[in-house]
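Tutorial handout. Part one gives the primary structure; part two gives the three-dimensional structure as tokens.
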Amino acid sequence: MSRYDFSELSKKRPERILTHALKKHAGRNCNGRITSRHRGGGSAKKYRIIDFKRDKREIPASVKAVEYDPNRSARIALVAYADGEKRYILAPVGLRVGDELLASANAEIAPGNSLPLSNIPLGTSIHNIELRPGGGGKIVRSAGAVAQLMARDGNYAQVKLPSGEVRMVHVNCWATIGQVGNTEHENVEIGKAGRRRHMGWRPHVRGTAMNPIDHPHGGGEGRTAGGRNPVSPWGKPTKGAKTRKNARTQRFIVSDRRRKKK
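Part two.
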């Protein structure tokens, strides 16, 4: 088991006005039916309201604290604007308490500053990218994630995502400079089942350990490899089958993340 290094965090409680209670649903929808399996329990936590839009433009802000957020893998930064308002943003690599940030079309190309894609130099590392102008950052928001601005052609820019996919995004969409912080997140070993339960995950039982009535992989004398291609409890293929069916946005994908490498 390995743990996080919290040395970079500020020793302060979350900003009360920027948090609210987070009700647990244990993977159930509004009808009480389970739609996400193996969820439930977990430690109590409050939700931190994150400013993904960065719509407070042309007003300088100062970083007051870098904090832990139990709802995401990334660290968050508390910023105070010149007019007195405070907000939480995703903390990029290299951001320190006391740094000055700005969301502006003419902002400096520095970690934490937010600009439209039309004003960001090609090759720059970015995160928290909008998919629709004014819609707020939707992609590249987890710990250690980083995208790269590859090219611009007319009204669209080509962005290489962490998965390797190259996608077209409108040049009026905003993005934040830098890589999302807490890059060591991927190296953390959970180590024990109890720690997983604290995170809100319940046990996952293998299909081959079940009876035939409970799972297509169940049954058989002794241990078996399943006897068929991997499927879900309802018979849907789980490995290798393409599940993306979105003709509306397919045209924005320039290079698929599953492309064969030569």
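Part three, for discussion. The domain at 209-262 is CATH 4.10.950.10 (Ribosomal protein L2; domain 3). The radius of gyration is 22 Å.
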